[in-house]
Automatic annotation (TrEMBL):
Pfam families: TIG
InterPro entries, alphabetized: Ig-like_fold, Ig_E-set, IPT_dom
Name recorded for this polypeptide: IPT/TIG domain-containing protein
Gene Ontology biological-process annotations: carbohydrate metabolic process
Location of the IPT/TIG domain: 192-259
UniProt lineage: Bacteria, Bacillati, Actinomycetota, Actinomycetes, Micrococcales
Length: 270
């Protein structure tokens, strides 16, 4: 909740767990709607990198590079458009996948590889997920290339991590930008309530904007008992839903979430 000073301590991100997945270049990205699902299942091509070290979580450096382009008229400038974005992460495990990521090699039947310290060129898709203490989920996806691998100095009784630095590339799947990001609110613990549904008098296939509360994690929207063919949760207090086929007249709306179904709200359709 936001206090009188405009601060919302419940919105502070304190990571408690997460994972990092990799897939070969060209693997399909989750759609924006699929990626927003709390129960997202990635394509089989994605492999999880396993445990990270305690201090080795995701460090995304997403900063512009180069000086701003300035103009003759004082005060006018625009970004150069250049950047050198990276993702740094430290993996705790040292296994087949980590070796493949770090050195670009798959071990033979003897567990043997050769390592070229000059690096390797392997294009990948990286997918990260962080779950915060407040229940919020942050996910990011990007096309990347491993540019550096550094194995920790071996210390008795300590985790021997492998730190990877990955260059993040512009992707046509992201509008020629670098990173796709989802921020998913925690599922509501109370059933949705409906306060309005506008505009009234819509017909099959047309959209209705429904306002209320408790829309996080909504699983179903019905009109007159018939499932909406398409709906999109815009926020915890608003969603859009397309009307299903049906006869003109009364079509009460019911929204269902993890904590149950709303009380039906009267709606008249065309």
């Amino acid at each position: 909740m936001v206090d009188q000073f405009g601060n919302d301590i419940s919105a502070v991100g304190i990571p408690v767990t997460g994972f990092l997945g990799f897939a070969p270049a060209g693997t399909a990205f989750p759609t924006p709607s699929d990626g927003a699902s709390p129960t997202l299942t990635l394509e089989p091509a994605y492999e999880k990198a396993g445990l990270l070290t305690e201090d080795g979580g995701f460090e995304w450096v997403l900063e512009p590079d180069g000086d701003q382009v300035k103009f003759f008229q004082e005060g006018y400038q625009i970004p150069s458009g250049l950047s050198n974005p990276t993702l740094v992460v430290k993996l705790a495990q040292y296994d087949r996948l980590v070796r493949k990521l770090a050195w670009g090699k798959t071990p033979d039947a003897n567990g043997f590889i050769t390592i070229d310290a000059g690096g390797h060129l392997t294009d990948l898709v990286a997918f990260s997920e962080e779950i915060f203490k407040n229940g919020v989920i942050r996910r990011r996806i990007a096309e990347v290339t491993v540019t550096k691998a550094k194995v920790d100095k071996s210390e008795r009784g300590a985790v021997n991590g492998t730190e990877l630095t990955l260059a993040v590339k512009r992707s046509p799947l992201l509008g020629n930008e670098h990173v796709g990001e989802w921020l998913i609110p925690p599922a509501s613990t109370v059933a949705p309530t409906l306060t309005s549904a506008l505009p009234s008098g819509q017909a099959a296939g047309q959209s209705v904007t429904i306002s209320g509360t408790g829309f996080s994690g909504v699983t179903s929207v019905t009109f007159g008992g018939v499932e909406s063919p398409l709906f999109q949760v815009l926020s915890s207090t608003q969603l859009k839903a397309a009307l299903p086929a049906g006869a003109a007249g009364s079509a009460p709306i019911v929204v269902t979430g993890p904590a149950g179904a709303s009380t039906a709200r009267a709606y008249t359709r065309a």
